[in-house]
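Hey there, shall we discuss this one?
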Amino acid sequence: MRRVSPFHRWYRKLALAERVYLALAAYERGDAGEVYALIDKCRSADLVGYGCALFALGFTASIVVVRLLASEVLTVKLYEDLAGQPGADPALERKLVSLLERRAAMWCGFATWCRDQGHNPRRVLHMAPLGLDERDPVFFIVQNTIDYIESQTQDPHGFVPTPEQVGEWYAVFDDLFPSSFLDGEPVDDERYG
């Protein structure tokens, strides 16, 4: 028999933002029962909005994970190319620095956007449908990449993105996940209607 949380009876009264926050926490700890209970106890009127919010967060997290993995592959390739050169190649070095700066800007934009939405960015990454648990090699690569980016942005000699670069990525994530998903209001935008 499945153990039911005593809080499940209150789930019908949750606001959409609260439901999404609890779902993120449940995804992070791998609690499928909690995720299903949050869906099960969702009012019919809120179910579409809740599903859209989770889908948009998962899509956003997937974009971040794929870009981090792709940048890791490109970084390794550029390091190999630099190591294979008998002398310094300024063009390759500039490519590498540019890649690392863009990767840092993307992560910083995503992290800032997540915090502004009231979420932990690492927790949101658990929404990516790539099986991000601690035994998965993808999880290890992504977490190490994030740790590296965060250490570099704290280092005065590291790869610190400009506020403009971070702002550009913030805007991308804001477009992917409009705040209307959390407040339940329809999107009021000429592009959609």
In short: Residues 8-177 form one domain. The helical segments are 16-29, 32-40, 44-83, 90-116, 121-125, 137-154, 163-176, 180-183. The radius of gyration is 20 Å.
